[in-house]
């Protein structure tokens, strides 16, 4: 058993007869009344995100998990295939258990969280950022750069990312996986 002081991003807990992963939390200490922890929980079985508030000191049942490195192989509909980089065993996961499936490039190494009790994969943690090539974008209009203007760009995985006007087709960009936002252009 853990308490609210152990809450952190990525912690898997049992809540409402399901396993949830904490994706966001905030400790709140109001001027009047007891402290509490406001959380966003994502179900690892359905992918549904719920908001919940735990009072300070509340006992939560954490799930013992192991992390393993897996390489993304390919997608088949809503099923994604991964291979363990240590023993080469392959697993398949549903699209709902992935945080950012649109930014997943073939050959990318990700961390898969596995429940220690029944060896079931719970969720996939992407690297903090990925480098992708821009495959399609409109050309930037000269003189339209007075503000922090952006335009949509399609990257090699098919995802759409808002990028600055100076980004062209063929450029490699770094994308933050948590928010799916542009970080910087990569020069080679």
From TrEMBL:
The keyword Cytoplasm is assigned to this record: yes
Keyword line: Cytoplasm, Elongation factor, Protein biosynthesis
Locations listed in the record: Cytoplasm
CC annotations in GO: cytosol
InterPro entries xref list: Elong-fact-P_C (IPR015365), NA-bd_OB-fold (IPR012340), Rib_uL2_dom2 (IPR014722), Transl_elong_fac_P/YeiP (IPR020599), Transl_elong_KOW-like (IPR013185), Transl_elong_P/YeiP_cen (IPR001059), Transl_elong_P/YeiP_CS (IPR013852), Transl_elongation_fac_P (IPR011768)
An annotated GO BP: peptide biosynthetic process
MF annotations from Gene Ontology: translation elongation factor activity
Matches recorded under Gene3D superfamilies: 2.30.30.30, Nucleic acid-binding proteins
Principal location listed in the UniProt entry: cytoplasm
The organism's place on the tree of life at top rank: Bacteria
Record keyword Cytoplasm present: yes
Residue span(s) of domain Elongation factor P C-terminal: 130-185
UniProt pathway: Protein biosynthesis; polypeptide chain elongation
Domain Translation elongation factor P/YeiP central: 67-122
Summary of the function given for this chain in its UniProt record: Involved in peptide bond synthesis. Stimulates efficient translation and peptide-bond synthesis on native or reconstituted 70S ribosomes in vitro. Probably functions indirectly by altering the affinity of the ribosome for aminoacyl-tRNA, thus increasing their reactivity as acceptors for peptidyl transferase.
Family (UniProt): Belongs to the elongation factor P family.
Protein name: Elongation factor P
Gene source species: Aquimarina aggregata
Taxonomic lineage from the root: Bacteria, Pseudomonadati, Bacteroidota, Flavobacteriia, Flavobacteriales
